[in-house]
Write the C-alpha cells for this entry.
Amino acid sequence: MVDIDKIMTTDADGTKRQIMPQTHVSAILGLDKQISEQVGGNTFNLTLPAGDPGKDGADGKSAYQLAVQSGFQGSLSDWLNSLKGKPGEAGGADSSVKQISAGQYKNIGDVPNGTYYLAMGGNDLPSDMPVNSVGYGILVSQIASEYNGRQEYTDLDNKTTTRIKASGVWQPWRTAIAQRLDNARKINGTTFDNTQDVTVYRVNDSEVILNTSFEKFETDKAHYHPWELVEFLFKPKANAGNLAITYYKRNELVATQHIAYDSQTVQWHWRLPGDDIEAYIVKVVNTVKGQSETFYHAINVSWDQKDRPLMGFLSKFGDYNLENVNNIMTYLKRLHINYIQYYDWFDRHDVPIKTNDDGFVSQFWGDFVNRPTRFDLIHKYIELGNKYGILSMAYGLINGASHNNETDGLSKDMFMFDDNSQDLGHVTNTNLTPWAKYVLYQMNFMVDSWQDYFTKETAKIYRFLPFDGWHIDTLGDPGSKYDSTGKNITTDSWKLAYPFFINKAISNSNGKRAGLNAVAEYGQKEIASSNADYIYTEVWDNRKTYNDMMNMIIEMRNMSDKELIVAGYMHHHWSDNNANNTNLVFNDPAVILTDLVIMASGATHLEMGEHMLTTEYFPNNKLSMSDALKDYLVKIYDLQVAFKRLFKIKNKAKVDMVSSTHAIFNNFMQKGNLSIISKEDDWYRVDSIINMIGLNGDTWRDDDKDRNYPTFQDNVMVGYPNHGDYKHFYVVEPKNPVPTEVFPDSNGNFTIHHIEYFTLVYATKF
C-alpha cells in the first residue's frame, strides 16, 4: 500500500492536490519505480515497490492466420508459395581460373589478361607486386591496355590489393579494407558509408569500391623563409595509425619524426634550418594495420621568391565563390607557385583602377571585354597569396590606352603612329570591338612623358589593392613606327626602352617589384640588364621543337643571374582551329614532356591558374586536365623545387654521359632516343634523362594534340668516363623524389632499373 499523504501537497492558497507522478529514467532498469515532481522549487520523490509478476499473455496468431484475417484466401501452402520472389536471371558464363607458376613472370604486367592462381609466393612472386609474406597462394587478375587497365591480387588473408592505369600511368597500389557502414549510401545497389570518400574503379561494367587510406597532405604555404615554421596537415582515412616522417635536403637526411595518431586529422610542425636558397623534401610513411603508403611534399625556402620564380595566373574576378577561390589557391599552393599575375583585372589600360569623383575605389567594373569584375574578389585572392607566401603581380600592358584624344592626362607626344602624318587619327591601334569595350590604342613607351604618366598612374593601384608589383605585358616587336614629330622608330630601337621603363615602374612605386614579357624573346637581353625580378618570355613558332626550347632557355639564362619564366601555350593552334571538336582534354604526355624539358633546361613554366593555359588569352579554358595529369604535375613541381639547386646550374658538363645499352644524346633533344641535359659546377654534376624513345613527334607545343607516350625503358646502363672526379652518385625518380645512392662499377657504369618519362642522376664532388 502507498501512503497517500506522501503524494499530496498543499498549494500557496491552502488547496491540497495530488502530485502527478512521472516515471524516472532509472525506473526502466530497476525493479522499483521512482516518481518526482517539482512544486514551488521543491522536488518530491517517491519510490514505489514493484508489484507481483503478471500472468502469461495469450498465444499470438500466426502470420498465416493474420493473413487470412486480413482477407487472404488459400491454404497455408498457397500462402507460403506467395512469399517466393521471381526467378533470378541466369548467371554469367563461368570464368575459369588457371593455375600458373609465379616464377614464370618477372613483373605482374607480364601476366596475360585474365584471372590466374599463382601457387607459390615469396621470392617467386612478380617483383612489382607489393607482397611481404612468404608462401602465399595469390589469385591474380590482370586487365591492362597501353593506356588504361587494372591489376589486382588477393592473398590468403583475403586482402585485395589493386592498382589502376589511368592515361598510361600506373597509380599506387591500394589495399581494400572492409569496414562497418552505419551511415550509408548506395552505389549500384551496394551500400557504402556516406561519411567516407571512396574511389570507384569500373571493371567489367561493375563498380569496384576501394576505400583509400589517405585524403590530403599539405603545408600552410607555397614558399617559406629560412628559420620559418612549416605547419603540416595530414588527413588519413583511418582513425588510427603511425606516421614516420623524414626530412631531406637532396640526399642529406636532416631530421626525423614519429607520430602515432588516433584521429582523422594529424597536425605537426617543423622549424626550417637557416639556409637561404634551399629546398627540402618531406617523406611521410603512413602505416595502418601493417599496411603502409608513402607520400612526399617539397618545401621551397629563400628570403626572396625571385631565386626560383614559379608563376601562376588568375583571370576571372566576377564570381565571389569562396569555396572555389580556396580550391584554386590550394592547388596553386601545392604546386609551390610563388608569383601570380592577375590577368586583365583592370578597368582601363591607361587608368587601371576605377575610382569615383570622391576618390573612392569602385567595387564593380567591367574588364577589357566587359566581363564583370569585383574589387573584393581581387582583394581576397591577394590576401590568400600573402598568407601562402605568394607574390601578387598586377598585370598591365606597357603602352595601352582606351582612346586617342588629348584628354585624361594624355598628350599627343605620348602616342605611337603608323605613319609620319602626326595625325591622331593614325595612331597605331587594335580594334577588337564589339568584343572589347574600346579600341586599344598604342602609346610610345620610349618617351619620358608616357613613362612618367603611366608608371605613376599604375602606382595608384597600390593605395587600394596591396599588389606586390607589376607584371608588364607587351605586344612584342612594334616594327617600324613613328613618334609625334614624324620621326621613324625602328625595330632595333624600341627594345632599348625596356630597362628604363621597368626601373621607372619600380622607383615610382616606392620599390614595388616588376617583370616584363619579352614576346618571342624580343628585348630579352635588355630586360636582363634591368632591375626586374625575373626574365619572362612568351614562346612562339620561332622555337618549335624540344631542342629549340632547350637551346632558348640555356641562351637566356646565360644573359644574367636572373631566373627565366617561360610562357608556352600547349596545343595552341589546335585550340584555335578546332572550335567544334569534342575532345577537349589536354594530351597528358605532351604536357609532361614539355614541362620536363623546361625544368631540366633551367627554367619554369607559366601554365597553371584556374585552369591550364592553351592560348595567350588567359581566361580561355577550352581544354581541361585529366586527374592523372593534375597528380603528375605535383610530382614535377616537387622535383622543380626540391632540386632547384641542381636545375639552376648553367654550365654544361665537361664530359658526356655514356650508355652501353641505349642510344643517348647529350644536350640535344631528339625523338627516338634518351635525351640528356648535362650540367656541372664546382660541387655537382647533374644529368636530366628525358625519355623520347617511341615518340611520334618532337614539337613541344603538340599542335595536333596527338603526342603518344614514350616507350618505357628497363635496365638502362649509364656511366661517366671521368667517374673518379666524383664522390657519390644518386638517382631520383618523379614518383620517389628521395635520392637513391648508386655505386658504379670499376668503369663508372651503373644501371637505372626503369625510366618512364624522366630520371634525374647527379654526382657530388664532396
Summary: The chain has a mean pLDDT of 84.
